[in-house]
Amino acid sequence: DDRKPNSGICSYKMKIDGIKPTKLNMSKTKNGSVLHGIRSTDSHYSEFGEVYFSIINHNAINAWKKHQRMTLNLLVPSGEVRFNFIDSRKNSPTYMNRMAITLSKENYVGITVPPNIIFGFKGLSEKENIVTNIASIIHENEECLNIDINKYEFI
Predict the structure, then answer these.
(1) Which of 52, 37, 51 is nearest to 103 (CA)?
(2) Closest listed residue to residue 122, CA positions, set 143, 88, 149, 92
(3) What is the rounded distance in angstroms from the CA atom of residue 45 to the CA atom of residue 73?
(4) pLDDT tens column, 16-53
(5) Which among 75, 73, 52, 71 has a CA at the least distance from the CA of 117?
């Protein structure tokens, strides 16, 4: 199928079936903050494989990836990161739709991403940008497809 993803600026309100933004709790104390990630009792929690962190430099783009079996739970505890998602699931009602959202400590939201969603992210802060993935399975190279960065426009 040669359909291209919808272009234009998308936002948190544009939906891709199965992507679930969740407002996360943050408790400020006199010495700093406690940022919550995910609980096993949360409705979007599936299972635990591992947690890993990606540090992305200012204006750098890490794109495009597609996990075939992994459910991602993404959050940004430090910095500011713009995510792009493209629905590549042929049987999805939102097939080839796009969604973009910017996460940061100021917009402390987690995003649950089901398997077979193409995604990328860009570091926006001049300081350190940290993406945390609370993954449903342990990362395996064979399970994650890397797609040429030029295949889709990062919006």
Answers:
(1) 37
(2) 149
(3) 8
(4) 999 988 889 899 999 999 998 888 877 777 888 999 99
(5) 71
The SS3 of residue 120 is strand
CA distances 66 to 71, 85, 104, 105, Å, are 11, 10, 23, 25
- Integer CA distances (angstroms), 52 to 11, 31, 87, in order: 26, 26, 23
Place of tokens 């903050």: 33
> Rounded to whole angstroms, how far apart are CA atoms 126 and 103?
15
Instruction: Confirm if 96 and 87 have CB atoms less than 8 A apart.
Output: yes
pTM over 0.90: no
Specify the DSSP element, H or E, that contains 52: strand 50-56
29 touches 114 (CB < 8 A): no
CA angle in degrees (0–180, nearest 5) for 128-36-29 = 80
Question: Phi then psi for 143, rounded to 5 degrees?
Answer: -85, -20
| Structure-token match 């291209």, residue found | 4
Cα angle vertex 90, ends 42, 152, to 5°?
Answer: 90
